[in-house]
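Predict structure. Chain length: 205.
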Amino acid sequence: MPPSLLPGPAPAPAGRIGSLERAAFLAEVTSELGLVPVVSTTYTEPFHVSSALAALDHIGHGRAGWVVGSTENPAAALAWSRPAVTGDTALREAADGLRVVRALWDSWEDDAVVRDVATSRYLDRDRLHYIDFEGETYSVKGPAIVPRPPQGNPVVFAAPELVDPADADVALISGRDLSAVVAASSRASAAPRRFAEVDKGHGGP
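Prediction complete.
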């Protein structure tokens, strides 16, 4: 699922439904599939990414994951009224975004939701926590506005070229042949799990 809401090349429609919205629809009509949309934090605020993914995990009863994406299309910057984010800045925003999303998922303790109708007490505020993140381009106070996901932390997939493999649950590895995949997998050995794909169309014969 593409990480951008921007339309594709002509004759594509003027807009399209994002990967999160499509995953939320599928969560209601499936009961076994894992739902792992590509979601970029380049221009979308990590606070909103965290909320949407937590909501998806609730809708799917613990079947959500996240492929960390990065948006390079300059048109996206114009759509968000921001300067284009490229190079090292894009990598930093991806890494910071991942840290913020994870911290917000953890800002609610597992038993923060009380739901005591008799006393009209629905939350234990002492079990919600600020994250106090300070980055170079933004800061996030927290806590989250969506309760902790059923999984605690939905599974995070990411390419090692985008974020430190140690920060992802699954590193996404690809290469033009088996030897290239093996080399890339070795470079991403810090990841708890690695998912490899031999991409014959990626510069190969």
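Summary: The mean pLDDT is 89.
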